[in-house]
Amino acid sequence: MGLLRLTFWQGVGFLIYVLPPGWTILRAGEPLSSAGLGRQNLWQACVIGLIVGGLWCVPGPLGQKLAHLSRGDWALSLPFLAMFGLGEEFLYRGYLQTRVIARIGTWWGWALASLLFSASHFPHRLLYQGLGPAAALAATMHVVPCALALGFIMLRTQNILAPAIFHTVINFWGTL
Questions:
Q1: How far apart are CA 10 and CA 119, in angstroms?
Q2: The dihedral of CA 59, 60, 61, 67: what is its sign?
Q3: Which residues contact 12 (CB under 8 A, 6 or more apart)?
Q4: Whether 162 contacts 154, CB under 8 Å
Q5: H or E segment at 153?
Q6: The pLDDT of residue 136
Q7: Cβ-count burial of 29 within 10 angstroms (0-12 exposed, 13-18 middle, 19+ buried)?
Q8: What is the pLDDT of residue 1?
Q9: pLDDT digits (tens, 9 = 90+) for 93-142
Q10: Which residues contact 151 (CB under 8 A, 6 or more apart)?
């Protein structure tokens, strides 16, 4: 029952990330490619996401995780982490970052979208992980470099698949 409840709430979270910006894009008559959903740089995006995600994780938890990982963990965790990786990247990079950049410029838009993404992790640190406010703030600040990296990858590839794969890899290894 616990897995079913977790799966349900993960599905709800994915829909919250994807439906409002998707609806807004479609209502405005914009193509989904305006949010980085398209075939542009598709293979490059996949390769970049996997390589950067792997490199990001190699120095720390990757080796430890591989040593203790069972086949069942992969099968249960990866699809849900991929949903969140894609959902969050669609919202923060595909929708928010592209629109903020269009309004205030590349570097400020990239920085603002990255800070908003990082700030969105504060409630998770506070409520789910049970950290105190100061520790939750410090843990949230550790997300900023990763958020900047995700945004930069989106800037370079113009395809949310690259940051979504990177995001999934780092979520899987537990570094975000």
A1: 19
A2: positive
A3: none
A4: yes
A5: helix 144-157
A6: 92
A7: exposed
A8: 43
A9: 999 999 999 999 999 999 999 999 999 999 888 888 889 999 999 999 99
A10: 93, 97, 110, 113, 114, 117, 163
